[in-house]
Amino acid sequence: MLTRIALGYQRGVDRITEFAGTISWFLVLPLVFIGFANVVLRYIGAAREAAHDQRPHRDAAEHDSRPPVASSLPVSTGDPQRRLRLERH
After folding, report:
1. DSSP string of the chain, one letter each residue
2. How far apart are CA 29 and CA 23, in angstroms?
3. CB neighbour list of residue 83: distance below 8 Å, 6 or more residues apart
4. How far apart are CA 12 and CA 9, in angstroms?
């Protein structure tokens, strides 16, 4: 009697583990693909951002392309564009 109960329990546990194994088997491949796609898309996105940052801006020709020079000009409450022109020249 006790062996029948033990065998029934063993068969039940075997069915549950077989079912869980089958589900896992079908889920592993899509999850690996999703992880791989995530890495590739992040790499492509980073490369696009870097390329976008290197492109000249539309209005770059209108302005002096030299970077602003740090100077000891006092900060005034006047026209900020005038201050930038003074710093650049």
Report:
1. -HHHHHHHHHHHHHHHHHHHHHHHHHHHHHHHHHHHHHHHHHHHHHHHHHHHHHSPPGGGGTS--SPPPP--PPP-SS-HHHHHHHHH-
2. 11
3. 73, 75, 76
4. 5
pLDDT tens for each residue of 50-89? 777 776 656 555 555 566 555 555 555 566 666 666 666 5
Q: Give the global pTM.
A: 0.43
Identify whether the C-beta of residue 69 lies closer than 8 Å to the C-beta of residue 87.
yes
Please give the structure tokens belonging to residue 39: 């890495």
CB-based burial label for 83 (10 Å; 0-12, 13-18, 19+): middle
- Locus of tokens 């020709």: 61
Number of other CB atoms surrounding residue 11 within 10 Å? 10
